[in-house]
Amino acid sequence: MGAAHFRPPPSCVTLLAGGGPRSMKELGIRQRDRHVLREGYSPAVRRFEIASIVLYTAAMLWLLVDIAPWIGSKPFLALSALMLGFLAADFTSGCVHWLADTWGTPEWPFIGKALIRPFREHHVDQKEITRHDFVETNGNNCFISLPTAAGAALLPDGTVWFFIATMTFSMCLAIFGTNQFHKWAHMDEPPSYARVLQRVNLILPPEHHAVHHTAPYVKYYCITVGWMNEALFRLRFFQTLERLVTRLTGLIPREDDIGRRAALVVAREPPPPLPKIVLTSIDLPIDLPDVTARPAVKSE
């Protein structure tokens, strides 16, 4: 890859690594040029996104027709499935985000330009997503959800299958909204209703998502609502997966995103510490009797 495909890292952006903050320049992060990445959004990718949205809409309507007759007779089961599906969407968004951030290259045919390129571009220019229209914002997520939604529509009848199908419908619907929630998190002035949802943590809040955009972009991948981020980070979920993939394949995580030198430094960083369990003390009212001073009752 020629030097024109990369841009020098700005020294003003910092990260926490090795126990303290270091600049991108000191770490040696090299990211792709945003103009080259923007050129990767070709008419073929645009047509692919439009087709994905059309097919996704058809699959979701098909699934909704299947589960609608059951919802009235099993409302509480449906509500439980909808809530679980929302959590599953947040987890799925994190997994897809981690995969696209960590592995592969925009040069890959099809997947590279359609799915990996937007994530590389986003790290170089965070505001670019705010300039995307409806198709570019949501096309990729429709493609990701399409096979799952179609598969759920083919499930047989039955209470258990209804629960799975309803959960899948909720998950795919939330995944459809994920990039829109992500876009609002980067907007200076999102719609008023989006701001309300952000404040009550029902969609991705900008302050929460800002944690991910601290270079080298190694945590807080979940971008539907972000509820799963802290737990996955504390459990070293993605860090463990990265070490496993590297051991099995020899690949270096984030090599294409931030450059080989910086990727090696980040890969050798120690994992985050496990959470400490802190037991809070309870202050008892002072007027309670001192039961510890009572003499023991002798048994006769």
Taking pLDDT < 50 over at least 5 consecutive residues as the criterion, the unreliable ranges are: 1-22
What is the makeup of the main sheet? Answer: 2 strands, antiparallel
Distance between the termini: 91 Å
| Strand order in the largest sheet | 1-4
Number of helices: 13
Helical fraction? 55-70%
Q: How many beta-strand elements?
A: 4
Mean pLDDT: 83
Radius of gyration: 24 Å
Strand content: under 5%
Q: Could you say which structural class the secondary elements and strand pairing correspond to?
A: mainly alpha
**What is the total domain count?**
1
Shape annotation: globular
Element-by-element helix/strand order = EEEHEHHHHHHHHHHHH
Give an overview of the whole structure.
The protein has 300 residues and is mainly alpha-helical. The chain has one domain (31-293). It is 57% helix and 4% strand. The protein has 13 helices and four strands. It has helices at residues 24-27, 34-39, 43-71, 75-102, 111-124, 134-153, 159-186, 192-199, 206-209, 229-234, 237-249, 255-258, 260-267, and strands at residues 6-7, 14-17, 20-23, 31-32. The strands form two sheets. A two-stranded antiparallel sheet has the order 1-4. The chain has a two-stranded antiparallel sheet with strand order 2-3. Residues 1-22 have low confidence and may be disordered.
